[in-house]
Amino acid sequence: MLLRSAPRRLHLLRPHHHRLLSAAALASAAPSPAAAPVPPQAPTEWAEAPVASVRPATADASLYHVSLDLSAHGGLLASHAAAGQFLPFRLPAAPYSIFLAIASPPPAPGSSASAAAFDFLVKRLPGTPSARLCDLRPGDLVHVGASVVGRGFDVARIADARDVLVFATGSGISPIRSLVESSFVEDHKAGISLFYGVRNLQRMAYQERFNDWETKGVKIIPVLSRPDSQWTGERGYVQNVFSRMKNIVNPSSVGAILCGHKQMTEEITRVLVADGLSKDRILTNF
Asked: Which part of the chain is the FAD-binding FR-type domain (predicted)?
C-alpha cells in the first residue's frame, strides 16, 4: 500500500536525541543513479547467470526489482562483504558495461549462511543498458563480473556513533536497503534516521519494507519534491528539509551515510562539515 501522508510513527530521532538535532547515491556517471562511476578497469573475468525475477519496484514503473540467480557462483556470492558494493553487468549489444549497487544485504560476519541471489534496484531509462536489463525475463542469461567491486560503506569509521543520519535520493536507496537489512542496525545500536527523497510516492521504492525497517529501529523521513495535494509530510528536497531540522551540538557522536544525487550529497556534506562533523565520519560508497 502506498503512503498517503507522513506516517504517525515517523520521527527524526528518539526523544532524548532531539536536543542533538533540533537546531544546525551515489551520483552516477552512468545512466542510472544507482550505478557506480566506472572503475579504472573493467573486470577481466566474467560469469554467466540467469535472471531470477524482474518486476516493477514503483507504481510508475520507473524503477524495477531485478534478481539474479547466483547459486552456481559461490565465489561471487562470497565476495559480497559490505553494503554499498557493486556488480558489473555486460549486456548484449550494449556499448558499455554498467555497475549496479547490490540491494540485498551481505552475509553477517562469521555467518555460514549465504543467499543464492543478488537483488538490484534498476532505473529504467529508455535506450540504456539498464532499461535492457529491466526488459529481460526470468531465465534470460546475463554476463556479470566474477566478483563484486567497490569498498562499500566503511561503517567501522562510525562504529562509536550514537546517532546515524542516512540520506538517499531516487535509486540511491538501493545500497541503503543493503545497509539497513544487514547487521549494521543491530550491531551499532545507534539511533538511525533515514531521509529518503523522491519526486512523488509513485516513484518511492521499498514502501512495503518501511514497517520492517522501523521495527529494526530506523526512523524514516520521506521527502517529496512534487507531491500531490493529499501529501502532509515533508516537501522539497532532502538537503533543505534536513537543514531546517538539524542542530548538531555534539559532532563526535554523529555519523552520516549518503547515497544519491550529486547536488544532495555535496550540500549535505557542506552542512554537516559546517556544523563540525569530520569528513571522515561522512560515508559514501564511491
From this structure: 44-155
pTM: 0.84
pLDDT digits (tens, 9 = 90+) for 270-283: 999 999 999 999 99
Task: Count other C-beta atoms under 10 Å from residue 197's C-beta.
Answer: 27
- Tell me, letter by letter, the H, E, C secondary structure of the chain: CCCCCCCCCCCCCCHHHHHHHCCCCCCCCCCCCCECCCCCCCCCCEEEEEEEEEEECCCCCCEEEEEEECCCCHHHHHCCCCCCCEEEEECCCCCCCEEEEECCCCCCCCCCCCCCEEEEEEECCCCCHHHHHHCCCCCCEEEEECCCECCCCCHHHHCCCCEEEEEEEHHHHHHHHHHHCCCHHHHHCCEEEEEEEECCHHHCCCHHHHHHHHHHCEEEEEEECCCCCCCCCEECCHHHHHHHHCCCCCHHHEEEEEECCHHHHHHHHHHHHHCCCCHHHEECCC
Within 10 angstroms of residue 212's Cβ, the number of other Cβ atoms is 12
Per-residue pLDDT of 175-231, as tens digits, reads: 999 999 999 988 776 789 999 999 999 999 999 999 999 999 999 999 999 999 999
Taking residue 231's Cβ as centre, other Cβ atoms within 10 Å add up to 17
Summary mean pLDDT of the chain: 85
pLDDT digits (tens, 9 = 90+) for 218-266: 999 999 999 999 999 999 999 999 999 876 768 999 999 999 999 999 9
